[in-house]
User: Which sequence fits this backbone?
């Protein structure tokens, strides 16, 4: 079995992001990508470079491919509300699981603006910036920084969030949790990814522990440290597992 | 540059149709055959947008099958409409190339006369 070089892999990722950002039909997109991957594998085996395939300007080449692909309005119409639902589910999941879901004016506006901002930031990052850094340390640093910025915005909003006009009852909290879980599962099936299951799973550790563990243990620094250590170890292990399985898939 | 590219695109379309008409084939094999014939393609990848257009116009059909390398490979074969289009292209090309050829010949003769 043959593997693609870093340049070829990067080109494929850049192409996919470019076509995705143009709202192209995903089926057609997958087809041309499979075809180009096959071509690149054979070309590289014979010592050719990516430039031999794309010509001098990979960007121009991507454009020429994009022009032949149809814009998929239906996919776009489904994807947009689904994404909004997913973000809402992520935002509501933890507070509801903690049992203190509430809504306030600042909260709604703040979360709305923060969501749009993070959308724009991540969109820009995925399409324009990340493909270029795919195989360098920069990739992780940039992803990490963006995550921190977005997380920071949400924390600030949370901090300003006072005077709720709606406080959920325990029953409503549980219903919200169930609703969120349904959204996560639908997404996992739709996008064929484990991420929308795994991330909420890790997010729910703290709240679930809080519900199950008696209060006196909960305030003991020893147990807090233990919980955090365990959490970090398990997260790292899962990340490593995902990393390894994605490596295997490439081969 | 852009007229050359446009011209190449049209010629590439006809040439690829001719290649596929000879029997089921796939992208990389097509670029190899083009090179055997010393066909001056801008870059290997430039065949793919053309193939996509051929398929959209129903001149060719394709099927994904397992390749010896592991990943799936897209094999193309020609349709009846494609064969008709190929005939049209051949006629066009013969007329065009004859015209250009005789024009260039005449030019060379003219040069010879001057010398």
Assistant:
């Amino acid at each position: 079995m043959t593997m693609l070089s870093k340049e070829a892999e990067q080109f494929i990722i850049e192409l996919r992001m470019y076509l995705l950002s143009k709202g192209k039909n995903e089926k057609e997109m997958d087809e041309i990508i499979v075809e180009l991957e096959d071509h690149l594998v054979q070309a590289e085996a014979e010592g050719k470079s990516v430039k031999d395939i794309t010509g001098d300007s990979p960007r121009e080449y991507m454009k020429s491919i994009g022009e032949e692909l149809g814009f998929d309005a239906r996919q776009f119409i489904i994807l947009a509300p689904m994404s909004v639902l997913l973000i809402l589910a992520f935002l509501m999941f933890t507070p509801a699981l903690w049992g203190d879901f509430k809504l306030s004016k600042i909260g709604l506006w703040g979360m709305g603006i923060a969501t749009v901002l993070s959308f724009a930031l991540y969109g820009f990052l995925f399409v324009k910036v990340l493909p270029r850094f795919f195989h360098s340390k920069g990739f992780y640093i940039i992803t990490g920084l963006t995550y921190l910025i977005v997380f920071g915005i949400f924390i600030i909003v949370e901090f300003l969030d006072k005077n709720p006009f709606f406080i959920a009852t325990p029953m409503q909290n549980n219903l919200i949790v169930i609703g969120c879980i349904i959204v996560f599962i639908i997404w996992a099936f739709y996008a064929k990814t484990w991420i929308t299951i795994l991330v909420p799973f890790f997010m729910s550790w703290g709240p679930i522990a809080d519900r199950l563990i008696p209060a006196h243990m909960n305030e003991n620094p020893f147990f807090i440290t233990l919980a955090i250590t365990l959490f970090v170890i398990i997260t790292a292990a899962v990340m490593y597992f995902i990393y390894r399985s994605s490596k295997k898939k490439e081969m | 540059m852009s007229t050359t590219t446009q011209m190449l695109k049209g010629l590439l379309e006809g040439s690829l149709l001719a290649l596929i008409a000879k029997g089921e084939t796939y992208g990389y094999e097509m670029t190899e055959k083009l090179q055997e014939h010393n066909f001056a393609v801008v870059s290997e990848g430039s065949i793919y947008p053309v193939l996509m257009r051929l398929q959209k116009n129903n001149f060719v059909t394709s099927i994904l099958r397992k390749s010896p390398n592991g990943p799936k490979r897209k094999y193309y074969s020609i349709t009846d409409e494609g064969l008709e289009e190929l005939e049209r292209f051949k006629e066009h090309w013969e007329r065009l190339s004859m015209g250009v050829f005789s024009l260039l010949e005449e030019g060379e003769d003219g040069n010879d006369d001057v010398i």
